[in-house]
Structures are given as structure tokens and as C-alpha cells.
Amino acid sequence: MFKQDQLKTLKEQYKDKDNFHIYMVGKRPLMMFDKSSYDISGSIFKGNIRIAHEGTFKNVSIQIPMEEMIVRVSFEMNDQYIIIETLTKPAFKAHAALLLQTFLAQSEMDSSIIDLQVLYIGRAFGLKETPTRNVFDRLQHHETVQKIYSERSWDTDVWLTAWKFSPNSIAFFDPNESNDDLKSYIHNLVESKKNNTSFLQISDKQNIAVAEAALINYFKPIYNDKFKNNFPSSDHEYKEYYELGLDYVMVELDTSGLGFRLWSEEAEVNKEHIIKYTFNSEQDFKNMFSFDQPK
Fold it and tell me: Which helix (H) or strand (E) holds 185?
């Protein structure tokens, strides 16, 4: 999870890595430090984080233990960031929301205040592009993201998240199939593992495109138009999925280890979201992935 002002740094950090291709734009209540009232006791900072709530602010008390004696505390970006300097260690800088997110994850307090509402989902490359750009490059000059920032209310804050999806496959066998077919399948699977290749030969571009569309169809974010009600769509290239005779597509999203939950107007708040689309018959499957179907 990151802010727009971190994009240049993250782009440089991941410029030679093929890590993230799907991004989400979300919002949560505005949070900032109360710089008018805090205390420093040796190596411990004690203060409050102000959270926008029902037209006003409420405070949550926090402590930040440092390894050395604190010599200076300052705040940036309308008090959303805190900078703590000690005697010899590098300065500690953190956003109020991320600090509170970590604090609540380690406590028994209600953490619903940091739930993230999904507003927009996209991917780093277009339909005619190869999946080489990462999300940090894409988000720097994104019209919809800029629109979300311009239309947000005073008491909300916009956050960006980047995701990498690892494809997996499960095979079921018909007991009436010939042994030769089963032996051939197992042989090809073993060879793919030995050679570290993809057994099903589904391209990264196809996997990313399907994951993006499935997520949009599930969350139905208010700033997305495509795929909210017509997934799969002929706008996406799903021919490989049809040719392989796949029975279903499932996307699993788990934020348990990240300290926050996702939700939208159509999807209930949860740490784990499992999105599954089943094809009940060969004809249904063919119809869903037809390039000739009306949009």
C-alpha cells in the first residue's frame, strides 16, 4: 500500500523487476498526527493519530519505540507523515495511516477504521501492449486516478495498492478416459516441472487480463466501466482459456498478512475474497468466450 507521492521512488526501485501488473485505487478515512500534543520519553514517542469521523476527528493514542534516544520530531504533508530523528540511526519516517494499521494489527482494538474501499482496478499495460510496464509507471499519469483524487471529500484519503498474481491449476480426470491420455498428461506435467515451464502454456498477459476482469466484475468499483456486468467480454483476449478446455476460473485475494480488509459497494468487507466463475457446459464455455458475442 502506498501514496501517489511515492510512485517515482517505487518506479526506480522496481524498474528492473517484473513484479506487479494489477493495481487498485481505494479510499479510507483521512488520518494525521496531532502535532499539538505529544510527548517524548527518552526513546519513546507518545502521541495521537487524528481520524476523520462523522464530520469531525477522533483520536487514537499510539506509542513509537525507537532504538535510541529521540532528538527531534517533525511532521510533513499536512501532518500525515512523522519524522523521528535519533542520535545515530537513520531518520524514521512513516504515514499516520500505515503506522495505525500496524498498531491495530497487533492490538485487540476495532480495526474497521482502516478498511479500504475499492474505487478502481486496472493493470499496467493496455490490450495491445506486452506486459512489461509495472503499475508504478502506469499510475504516474493516469486520468482516472487523477479524477479520483480531485473528487474525494475532505475527510477521505486515497491509497494505491499493487498486486502480483501467481497462476495455479488443478486437474480432474474422468475415470472413463483412456490410460494413454492420463499417462500423456502426467508425462507433460513432469516435463514442465523439470524444465521450469508453464504446463498449460497460458501467457502472462492472459492470466493478468482475466484476473483484472474477474476482480472488476466482483468488486464492481464505481470508477470502472468495463467488465462490471459483462465478464468475460470480447474486449479481452481469452482464446487461450477456451482452447485449453478449462472448466472454471478462480481468483483468490487475501490481505490477512497486510493488516487491512477490502470492500466495495457490491462486495462485503473481508480479508479473503474468493472469486470463481464456473462454466456449466461446453456450449456455455464457448458462448462466454466467443469473440462474436454482443458487448
Answer: helix 179-194
Q: Return the CA Rg of the chain.
A: 23
User: What distance in Å separates the CA atoms of residue 195 and residue 265, rounded to the nearest whole number?
Assistant: 45
Nearest to 161, CA basis, from 9, 20, 19: 20
pLDDT tens profile 226-265:
888 876 554 455 556 556 666 677 889 999 888 899 999 9
Q: Which three cell numbers stand for residue 135?
A: 503499475
Give whole-number Cα distances, 260 to 18, 21, 23, 77, 190, in Å.
25, 21, 16, 23, 39
Residue 117 main-chain phi, psi, to 5 deg: -85, 125
Any bridge partners for residue 41, and if so which? Answer: 44
Could you tell me the pTM of the whole model? Answer: 0.81
Cβ contact 118:219 at 8 Å: yes
The predicted-structure confidence for 86-145, as pLDDT tens digits, reads as follows 999 999 999 999 999 998 888 877 889 999 999 999 988 765 555 556 788 888 888 999
Please tell me the distance from the alpha carbon of residue 143 to that of residue 149, in angstroms, as a whole number.
10
Helix (H) / strand (E) element for 286: namely helix 282-288
